[in-house]
Specification:
The complex is a heterodimer. Chain A is mainly alpha-helical. Helix content of chain A is 44%, strand content 10%. Helix content of chain B is 24%, strand content 25%. Classes of the chains: A mainly alpha, B alpha/beta.
């Protein structure tokens, strides 16, 4: 476990940069996490997905997979990959401060 | 008046649950009705062997009604929708079946049409799936005629039935091609959306090692967006390509179609949302789901349905008696992984404990997470157990519902929490 500093706060992150405690996340941290994840600026479209991830996590306790994102977020899978080239569900979850979505076993 | 329990689906889960319920409840207590659209019960684990000529589809199919105990009625009809508020199942043709308890056990369906190009030109010619009987049989012919080139085994996305089956396919293909003395002329490639062969660390390490040993190339984190049959390539959403001469694709899975037509019943993918421990719907206490149809964080595998069966039956009985369900499923899963050359591995795990080394079901038993001939014999013996012990709803002697810990090398930190109930 390592510590990262986002928006002036020290937070614990795992080996892949996911926040250990989603409740520590603030909106101000998102652009800085995004830069660490290789996304220079968060557009309104990025935010739409990030907010959706947060809402799904609050409701279900887990972030959606890419396939569910494509079906429910209002952003098509092709577009999701344009926004988050390294994997939409994973990257958006990291920026949203929630745990890495586990596809099923 | 007797209660009516309606079980949707006469596959592995539906059959074993109906039979267990029939033994548990007298006829004066409950009428039990199973609904399925046909009378063909397929032994699905056998499909893996069909492409290599080791099994034939006809031998894997038996009538559904013959697997159901006396006193369980089979209605051969497709389901149109479920009306949760009215507690009614609407059947194709317009008839309506009211229920006191509903058990959804309609499994997972293949959705190859959801992937761009998959069912287009080349489908069933150079692009196949072995996940249904017709595909497995057609693939057998294609593989028998295959002489040289690239065979690509691809999982489009999770969840899928039996997540180890695509790996087993690679292992068996390696064995089969060696036996035909053409292994050197064929590249075997495994393509997965996951970041490794399996999601759990110890098992992932073991299976990645086996793939490497057998010379199977592994392409990870590949989300297949398009299958180009004529061009012989898979294209991922992030623009990567994998070329193939023969593609063996595990298509997207979803719940049965009627789930979408039944407001409040399922999730985005059509799986039925239930509590992972009680298997009961959170919004409708008289509704349960089991097997591949259930939206719980287990593998979609027959062993899960078997181990969950006892829990579900207990909870249905409690709900009929007006009580809260107290039986709790631990996510117990047990899979043989055929690795070729008459060997297999066995894995055994649950929600909290990943597959580990050791022996099953106790210190004296089948070796876990290690290739052995004994496990291969276990896999073969399982077909008999399936028809004669699992489906009738009996326990396998010596193998309980909860995952056994004795015999396993459990690291201190990984030791599961005590569970009450």
């Amino acid at each position: 476990m390592t510590t990262a500093t986002y928006a002036g706060h020290d937070v614990e992150v795992d080996g892949e940069g996911f926040l250990e405690d989603p409740s520590e996340w603030t909106r101000e941290m998102a652009p800085e996490i995004a830069r660490d994840a290789g996304i220079e600026t968060l557009s309104a479209e990025h935010w739409k997905v990030v907010d959706f991830m947060r809402a799904q996590y609050a409701e279900k306790g887990t972030g959606p997979t890419v396939r569910v994102l494509g079906k429910t977020s209002g952003v098509a899978i092709k577009e999701l990959y344009e926004l988050f080239p390294k994997g939409p569900a994973k990257t958006a979850a990291r920026i949203a401060g929630i745990p890495k979505p586990r596809g099923c076993i | 008046m007797a209660n009516r329990i309606v079980v949707l689906g006469g596959g592995t889960a539906g059959t074993l649950v109906a039979n267990r319920l029939r033994r548990r409840l007298g006829r004066e207590e409950a009428e039990i009705v199973v609904v399925d659209e046909d009378d063909r019960h397929v032994y699905q684990p056998g499909l893996l062997f069909v492409p290599f000529g080791l099994a034939h589809v006809d031998d894997l199919v038996r009538p559904r009604h013959a697997q159901l105990h006396t006193g369980v009625d089979l209605v051969e009809r497709a389901v149109e929708s479920v009306d949760l508020a009215a507690r009614e199942v609407r059947l194709a043709g317009g008839s309506v079946l009211a229920y006191d308890v509903l058990v959804v056990a309609t499994g997972a369906v293949l959705q190859p049409e959801e992937t761009d190009g998959l069912t287009g030109p080349g489908w069933m010619e150079r692009v196949f799936t072995f996940y249904d009987p017709a595909g497995a049989a057609a693939l057998a012919d294609a593989i028998a005629a295959f002489e040289r080139g690239r065979i690509v085994v691809s999982v489009v996305d999770m969840p899928i039935k039996c997540p180890v089956a695509p790996l087993e396919f690679c292992f068996l293909a390696d064995w089969y091609l060696r036996r035909r003395k053409i292994r050197d002329a064929v590249d075997l490639v495994f393509v997965t959306p996951l970041d490794g062969a399996f999601t759990k660390p110890v098992c992932n390490h073991e299976l990645n090692g086996l793939l490497r040993e057998k010379g199977v190339e592994v392409v990870t984190e590949f989300s297949t967006g398009t299958v180009d049959g004529p061009g012989g390539r898979l294209v991922s959403y992030d623009g990567r390509e994998v070329a193939f001469d023969l593609a063996v694709v595990v298509p997207l899975h979803g719940g049965a179609k009627y789930v979408e037509r039944s407001p409040g019943l399922g999730d985005e993918l059509g799986f039925v949302t239930v509590d992972e421990h009680t298997l009961q719907s959170r919004s409708h206490p008289e509704v349960f789901a089991i097997g591949d149809a259930a939206g719980i964080p287990t593998s979609k595998a027959g062993s899960v349905a078997h181990f969950a069966g006892e829990v579900l039956v207990e909870n249905v009985v409690q709900v009929l008696a007006g009580a809260e369900p107290t039986a709790s499923f631990d996510g117990h899963t047990n899979c043989f992984i055929e690795s070729g050359f008459n060997k297999a591995l066995l894995i055994d795990f649950n929600y909290e404990t990943e597959p580990l080394r050791g022996h099953f079901p106790s210190a004296v038993g089948l070796p876990l997470l290690r290739e052995s001939r004994l496990n291969h014999l276990g896999k073969l013996a399982f077909e008999w157990l399936y028809w004669h012990v699992l489906l009738p709803g009996h326990d396998i002697p010596g193998v309980g519902t909860a995952m056994p810990e004795r015999g396993k090398s459990i690291p201190e930190r990984g030791r599961p929490r005590e569970r009450v109930g």
